[in-house]
Amino acid sequence: MKKQKELEKILSRCLLTGDEDMAFEKSDELIDLVGLQRFYVESITNVMSETGQMWYDGEIGIAQEHMITNIVRKIVQVNNDKIETKGLIEGLAVICNPEGDDHNMSNLVLEGLLKIRKYRVTNIGGNWYMGEKTKATNKAIVDFVIHARPDVVFISVTIARYLFNAKIIAKELLKALEDTQIYLGGLGTQGVVKGELQEGIILADKDTLETLNKV
Ligand code: B12
Predict the structure, then answer these.
(1) Burial of 208 (0-12, 13-18, 19+ CB in 10 A)
(2) Nearest CA residue ID for atom 56, ligand 1
(3) Fewer CB within 10 A of the end CB, N or C, for the chain?
(4) At what angle are helices 105-116 and 62-82 packed, to 10 degrees?
(5) Is the pTM of this model over 0.85?
C-alpha cells in the first residue's frame, strides 16, 4: 500500500512534467505491484482525481490537464492492447456516454476490464455534443446499441447534469433489449439512491471491480 502510494506520487510527477517515457515506466512498476485491474480502478482514478483537484485549485492550467489526460489515455490503450483475447468469448459489450458528457477515460478502463473477462467490446464513447440536437444524439446512441444486440451495456456518466440523458438512454434500451444487462455508473451517479432507477437498470457499485465481477 505504501509502495503503491509512493509510485502513484512519482507517476503523477512524471505526468505533470510531461515525461511520457517515465510515466510508462512507473505505470509498469505499478502494474507489477498491484495488477492491471487495480492499477486501473485505483491508481489511474487516484492520479486523475488529483489532476482534477490541481486544476480546480488553480495549480495547473487546462492545457496541462489535457496533456496529462492524453498521456494516461495512451497508457491505458497500450495496456488494453496487451490483453489476450484468444479463445471463446463470454459475450458482447457496448460502452457509451450520454450526449454532452466528454469524459471517456472511464470507457477505456472499462473496456480493458471487460476484455479481461473475455468480452468483445465496442466503445462508442466520445465527444457526442451536437449543438442543440440532444434528442437526435441520444437516438443515434440508442439505435446503435439496439442494432448491436449486446449482452451487456455500460453507460458511463461523469457530470451529474447529464444523468437525465443517461437515464433516457437506459430506459429506451431496456424497452428494446430484453436479455441485455444494462448498467449505469460513473461519478455522475454518485447521488443516485437505490431504487431511484427504473427496475431492470443496474446501478454500478462504487467499487467498480465489485460490479465487474458480477457481470
Ligand atoms: C480528465 C477530466 C476532464 C477532461 C475529459 C477528457 C476526456 N476525454 O475524458 C476535460 C478537460 C475535457 C474535462 C471537462 C470538464 N470537466 Co472534467 N474532469 C476530468 C478529471 C480530471 C478526470 C476524469 C477521469 O478521467 N478519471 C479517471 C477515470 C478512470 O475515473 P472515473 O471516470 O471515475 O471512472 C471510474 C469509475 O467511476 C467507474 N465508472 C465510470 N463509469 C462507469 C460506468 C459503469 C457502468 C461502471 C460499472 C463503472 C463506471 O470506472 C472507473 C474505474 O473505477 C476529473 C477529476 C476526477 N475526480 O475524476 C474532472 C471532473 C470529472 N470534471 C469536472 C467538470 C466540472 C468538468 C467540466 C464541466 C469543466 C468545465 N467547467 O468546463 C467539463 C465538462 C465537459 C463535458 N461536457 O463533459 C468535475 C465533475 C463534477 C461533477 N460530478 O459534476 C470533475 C470531478 C473535476 C472537479 N473536481 O470539479 N474534464
Answers:
(1) buried
(2) 49
(3) N
(4) 10
(5) yes
Q: What is the pLDDT of residue 137?
A: 83
End-to-end Cα spacing for the chain: 28
CB under 6 Å to ligand 1: residues?
41, 44-45, 48-49, 51-52, 56, 65, 69, 100-106, 109-110, 154, 156, 158-160, 183, 185-188, 204, 208, 211
pLDDT at 134: 72
The pLDDT tens digits for 62-114 are 999 999 999 999 999 999 999 988 888 999 999 999 988 999 999 999 999 99
Taking the C-alpha atoms of residue 85 and residue 168, their distance in angstroms, rounded to an integer, is: 33
Judge contact between 62 and 56, C-beta under 8 A. no
As a whole number of angstroms, the distance between CA 137 and CA 129 comes to 8
* Residue whose CB lies within 8 A of the most ligand 1 atoms, among 34, 106, 214, for a mutation test: 106
Predicted confidence at residue 193, as pLDDT, reads 84
- Strands of 47-176, DSSP E: 91-96, 119-123, 152-156
* Most ligand 1 atoms within 8 A of CB, residue of 68, 158, 165, 197 to mutate: 158
CA 83 vs. chain centroid, Å, equals 17
Q: Which domains does the chain have, with CATH numbers?
A: 2-82 (1.10.1240.10), 91-214 (3.40.50.280)
